[in-house]
Amino acid sequence: EICELFSWKDCHSEFIEGEPDSMLFDIEIMDIDAMDVGVLLLESARRTDEWKVILESLPSKKDIPYRAGNSIPKESGNEVEAVWAQVDGFKSVEDILAVVRLSPFAAMSGLSELVKSKSIQLKNAGELLQLAKLDVFREDITRRTNLYERALELGAKNQEITTWLAHSYESMGVKDKAARQYYELGYHHLNAGKYEEAAYAFSKVTQ
Question: For residue 95, what pLDDT is reported?
Answer without folding.
Answer: 96
